[in-house]
Amino acid sequence: MTEVLVVRHGETPWNFERRVQGWEDIPLNETGIRQAEALARHLSRTRHQGNQIDAIYSSDLQRARMTAEIVGHALSLPVVVDEGVRERHFGVLQGLVFSKMEEHEPEAARIWKSRDPDAILPEGESLRRFHERVTKAIDAIASRHLGQRVMVVSHGGAMDIIWRHAKQASLQAPREAELLNASINRLKIMPARWEIIEWGNVAHLTGDADNDMTA
């Protein structure tokens, strides 16, 4: 068994503007940097309470990498880049404001909203391919760290895939998981089963010093 802390990157300007990011390489904004710093302080404090993190992995996109590097600096750990946990490629939808997708790219917006697992977004990626990529990457990371605790900094879409895989939920079902910037989402990864320990923990961003990852 491996405990994996899946963390969504801190806020970016496009998060704030409600734009589709996908593979566009957008950096953190000031809020995102502060969120990453708060996460780093929390993890640095709780490692002295028996919650040691043994390795840090990150998507190669800079919003995730920046978040991971801030934490890595606080914990004196290198960041291992893994393209497998990169966000979904949203193709022609990337850069568009969510509320304007239908106006600018009606067919791609229809595919996105349909949640058809095998429909490929124009110039992008299908949900099924995205699911296979992310779950394969997480399983590979877990297999390299049996009996350890690792952190993986990824993206909202990838976190949704991870939540669905752990819950054995359909790719076509409406989204239920909270996908919060700089949130801590803890899972047990086993060869035949994933189990969610906690999800959407952002107490470290609100100054709750009692949050110690043991609840």
Q: Describe the largest sheet.
A: 6 strands, mixed
In the CATH hierarchy, what is the superfamily?
Answer: Phosphoglycerate mutase-like
Q: Give the helix proportion (percent range).
A: 25-40%
CATH class: Alpha Beta
Secondary structure: number of strands = 6
Mean pLDDT: 94
Strand content: 15-25%
Radius of gyration, whole Å: 17 Å
Number of structural units classed as domains: 1
CA-CA gap between termini: 19 Å
> Per CATH, which architecture?
3-Layer(aba) Sandwich
Q: Could you name the ranges where pLDDT drops below 50 across 5 or more consecutive residues?
A: 209-215
CATH fold field value: Rossmann fold
Shape category:
globular
Strand order of the largest sheet: 3-2-4-1-5-6
The H-and-E topology, N to C, reads as EHHEHEHHHEHEE
Structural class: alpha/beta
Q: What is the number of helices?
A: 7
What does this structure look like?
- By secondary structure, the protein is of the alpha/beta class.
- The chain has a single domain, classed as Rossmann fold (3-Layer(aba) Sandwich), CATH 3.40.50.1240.
- It is 36% helix and 17% strand.
- The chain has 7 helices and 6 strands; from the N terminus they run βααβαβαααβαββ.
- Helix 2 packs parallel to helix 3 and helix 6 packs across helix 7.
